[in-house]
Amino acid sequence: MPTSINIKAILDAAVQREDEAHAFYLRISKGQSNATVKQTFAELAADELSHKEFLQACLRDPALLSKMPTPKDYKVAEATEEPAFSIAMKPAEALALAMKKEEGAARFYRNLAESTSDPVLATMFTNLARMELGHKTRIETLFVNIGYPEVF
Amino acid sequence: MTNSIQELQDASVIFVVGSNMTEAHPVISYYVKRAAINGATVIVNDPRRTDLCRWATHHVQIKVGSDIAYINGLINEIFKNGWADEEFLKAHTENPDDIRKWVEAYPVERASEICGVPAARIKEIARLLGTAKSASVCYTLGITEHICGTDNVKTLANLQMVLGNLGKYATGLNPLRGQNNVQGACDMGALPNVFHNYQSVTDAKIVEKMEKSWGVNGLSNRPGYKMPTMLRKARDGGTKVLYCIGDNTVQTEPNMAHTIKEIEALEFFIVCDIFPTLTTPYADVIFPDYAWGEEEGTFSNTERRVQRVRGALTPPEGCRPSWWVLQELGKRLGYDLGFTSAQAVWEDMRRSATSYAGITYDRIQNVGLQWPCPTLEHPGTGFLHRDGNFSRGKGLFCKTDWVPPAEVTDATYPLILSTGRRLWHYHSGTQTRNSVGLERLFSEELLEMNPEDAARLRIQSGDLVKAKSRRGEITLRAWVTERAGPGMCWMAFHFEEACGNVLTNDAFDPVTETAEYKACAIRVEKIKDRETPIEDLHRQARP
Of B355, B354, B369, whose CA–CA distance to B307 is shortest? Predict the structure, then answer.
């Protein structure tokens, strides 16, 4: 079945993207001077591994993706500028970088969903976009809690 | 506040310090009373027996200005008994061993000696805090209006971090702000070192952003003066012009005689207010302002909730809203802000304030929203630092040491005076003392004295007394009451006829430049026996 082959290929690619994100967060975690930021990036790296495990489970049972709840989209990432990468990032900047990355991932899958004429693939991409949106919302919540300090 | 007002009703322990909330924040006190009815442990820590003590399970009568010693004593006892939240300390704080070692200098015996609370009582309070499921701390000006106000706040933050009581529902460190919209004023940048939304004026990127937003060049990147410095510099020409909006400076600053000299030294003084005050006679120009109930806009309360304020009455002829006056001044100085309404001002601010960006007039028609609320889709934020995450990363303990008030008692001035607010009046009384009903309920200021001190001076309630400090003297009637702790007197600053700020000390916290309104040395002398009793005072002062 061409569609099922495509679905496997898509999920494999998604798994690979999570692997790449895991490696990215680990790499930048190592260079950070702030212990909390280092830890935040390490935790984000671990998150990507759990996302990968979820996608691998989806390879066995693709219906899992469609069972995910639809997260609320507060669009905080969209309203936030992507911080410049440095070795001395602040905790809020680390989270801003991560939520921008998740925003990009969700947009990537949304664009694929819109560009395919195959309804099965479109549903798969939409579900993947929803998964990334969930990750974005989680990081946005962490960001809002610390990103607007009352300092005077 | 790190948390929300309503959460107080669900707290298992509420530690209230330096807060006469039933009189100064009566709405918030309802939630504390509700918690008390539901079985919460309510600990009131105050030199005065405030009305909240009727609802409290414990009243700890600490000496004026001894907060740091008392709280460090509590923290020491919490560590000693293994009640600290070690998991929180390890995961969310940077230097727990520093504070563990630091408070060893405050064994309960030493803390007791300084704060006047028996050691056993301090141990009991430490146990209540240390073994509670969660505890919320509320504080007000009794903490901040000291020369060590900043350190007082840091010590409370230490306590809550040691207990792991931050980033959770119904816990937190909750300052009940001193005025209804002081949170909003700070949020809007009515501070010398930040634009609105706490954007630093020393950050070149922020300055550039604001210049672009307002279409101007050359915005200053130097912090301005705090109010005491503004006034002090008037005397050496460093401040030439002062523009006061809704501030009765003469009556509300400490050491009134000194304040008047500073204001008289100004080259030009503008006041914008709703009625004549003690300050307006010194003004070169007075702009008649809109009053509450006449103006449109927003107030942001102490839980970061932005609320709509609507004009319900037609203002008197000739009055204008403050924003309009500022805009007209701007035009004459060559810059037209171009605003047409309070809403237009809000929208302009919202464009460049990320934490407010999601709050529009439409969204707060009925119920306000709590910032951070960065987008139109965001529901606002009830409590901050969820799961123990802080803006700087891990929480940092600050080592704080007790210092006595700037002025202590001696043979000439043997009593300590604290000042504050009464239920029926607000601040310098510009609004409330022009209300016939409130004047009937509480029509004169009274000097609260402890019965022991009053007996020694042969003073009874209603006697006319003179209260004198190194800075001035006032005459008023005495109210002999257990509300004042032994060795202390208390009064408000609402009444210009007998204003506490004639007596108060203009010594300031070095960081915030907040004056030590809560401690100055005075002596009290009887002038005349009472002519009429004031028997209904207890009813009048109780909400």
Answer: B369
